[in-house]
Design goal:
Strand 2, helix 2 and strand 3 form a beta-alpha-beta unit. The protein contains 17 helices and ten strands. Helix 2 packs parallel to helix 4, helix 4 packs antiparallel against helix 15 and helix 9 runs antiparallel to helix 10. The strands form two sheets. Strands 1-2-3-5-7-10 form a six-stranded mixed β-sheet, sandwiched between helices. With 382 residues, the protein is α/β, with parallel strands linked by helices. The protein starts with a helix and ends in a 29-residue tail after the last helix.
Length: 382
Amino acid sequence: MASSTKSNDDQILVERKSSARVLTLNRPKQLNALSSYMVSRLLEIFHDDERNSDVKLIIMKGNGRAFCAGGDVAAVARDARGRDWWKGAKFFEAEYRLNYLMATYSKPQVSILNGIVMGGGAGASIHGRFRIATENTVFAMPETALGLFPDVGASYFLSRLAGFFGEYAGLTAARLDGAEMLACGLATHFVPSSKLSLLEESLCKVETSDPTAVSAIIDKYSQQPFLKEDSICHRIDVINKCFSRKTVEEILFSLEMEAVSNADNWISTTIQTLKKASPTSLKVFLRLIREERLLGVGQCLVCEYRILCHMLRGHCSKDFFEGCRAILIDKDRNPKWEPSKLELVSDRDVDRYFSKLDDEGWEDLELPKRLNNLPTYAISKL
């Protein structure tokens, strides 16, 4: 998606520091959004370093005020608009392969989330064993506002969160700070940004891939942050009550009933956020997170790829293109969804997204067999 070889080479800074590989996402003006080059390069590096016994762990971070704000979906939308939706599908296929490799990696991946972490940026970090949040961290899965759905394995890692917090985070694109990421389990540690350089220096001296040893080093620089007074983590009871409902319509109705007896501005804001999102995206994601809750990460990614290809092809709905137009291109923030209301999206409509595509030559996502155990998502605070 970038044109010159030189600019491509600069998109990821690759360093070898003692026993660690340090990777810096380096598109600060684009908030380190993942280009097709970056995805393919990361795949190459991770594969090579897994075979390299001298590399004990991988450290990933971002240059500027973001770790990674997502995939370059605007470029994908432009390609798909030109009827080249296969090109966009290839981008996501490679990205999902990267997510799967990270989730099954035999060496520790330490992601330093000192800034914005959204969409594809979550996929490039949450699947790794160690996710370090700071006071600068802002996490969100904003896809339903774009006519997409939380993907990159989100149906796996959001469905593992306690209660129905994953439904809330995925449907509403809620923004979480570093303390909230730690509280819900999306982050494994919280380290003040002032200590990150010392932490990195210590990690680079590790002579083992033993996660226990790596964790012990991170623990030395970690602290327990305070949740803000208005933190979403103080509203878990309401979230579980409302977002446990069977349908999106019932979730909305439950929230509206709460609003009658509770003057909390968060409730009214959540209601408005849901009403502004793509009705199709909301219903597809709710079905997805409920069905994938007991499946492995590979199965989740295969299902997400089917849904993604349907959305890119645009035969069921063109909400993805309309969302990109309204949010990323024209920036009028006034998408015209079709269908425009939740009640116009039937169960049969949702079913189509989970079916195989009937395009000639299309195939399900195929992932290589991996022998490593998947990481355990530690949900301990909520």
